[in-house]
Amino acid sequence: MSKRQSADAVVIGGGAVGTACAYYLAMSGMKVTLLEQDQIGAGASTCATGVMYCLASDINDAEYLRWGMVAHDVMKGIVPVIEDLSGVNTQYQRRPAFRLAIDEEEEKEVRENLVWQSEIMATRWVNSEEVRQIEPRITQEVRGAALEPEVIQVPPPRLSHAFMRSAERYGATLIPTQAVGLALTNGRVAGVHHRQGTIACDTVVLAMGASAATASDWLDYRVPVRPLRGERLMLTYPGRPLDMILSTPRRGHLLSRLDGFLSIGSTGGRDFDDREKWIVDQQSAVEQPHPEPSPEARTELLRRATEVIPSIEFATVSQQITGIRPYSEDGRPIIGAVPGCEGAFLATGHTHRGIHLSAMTGELIRDLVIHGGSLHTSCDPKLFDPARFTS
Question: Can you give the pTM of this predicted structure?
Fold first, then answer.
């Protein structure tokens, strides 16, 4: 364990978001320490799919869509860099994607969203005949799809390790311990208390995932994040891998990973899900970040995936993965300065957008810490500002 007693910045949380923040801050010349109580990539990043598509109902206005496109471009540029720095093969891939409409309700939603989405990004409606020409295994019930020309997918634990090792190449230090509070002087950060002592610093980034609300006791600010349970399946599928990444509003995602598994899911992540059903209490989330898989979720996920590709009934379940996501009160990430606590920044509440927005979040935190504002002038960072919950 490192005995570092001071740092320019301390990042709390070693998921994809936290390690990205550590990387961008360290790359900019800051002395960075990251605190992680479990393992790198062990929290919400473990259960995440790692697929980065912009056509979805949670990205529900033009400003958020622009940020989603920025995040795609940032990730596309940074993955080769951190793979080279870290020596980690992230199993990153880029493929086109279909946002499928299997029934009338899905078609209505996809087509209505395309009206404004197509004004901002390259997307179009593809009829059912063309969809099945491209992927004949999709059900004959399909009514069409929105085409997203390029979507990124990367296994989150690999991405987190690549970011952390790259941060270490720039001098960042990892301490495997639990943060327990902040040292404050006259309303500004002076240090971070952890199980083994205190690290003096004037900047802290709270990238604590589903545990972020526990930091409310350290701040004069209620962190509006709740733990959201999610489950997905990894299948061994006898057919050839899917060339397209598939998603539907009601039935979730289907994608072939480079490790050979077909990922399907997830509960609490589909557009028509009642997310309140999947909220768990904060104490349970802290004590059991990876709950026991539920037979009900397994049955439901297989049924919905089979409605998209009927031959999935011949697949076998290799893994059932559970985890807890950080769900903000308005469903959007919370990225920026904590009101009333100088030097404290939040990077949490991404729900199921943590991997998609991880590199962009790291860049934005770096810009806010070092430059006092975002360098992406085409997008407004106020969309994610923690101050939006204080009015």
Answer: 0.95
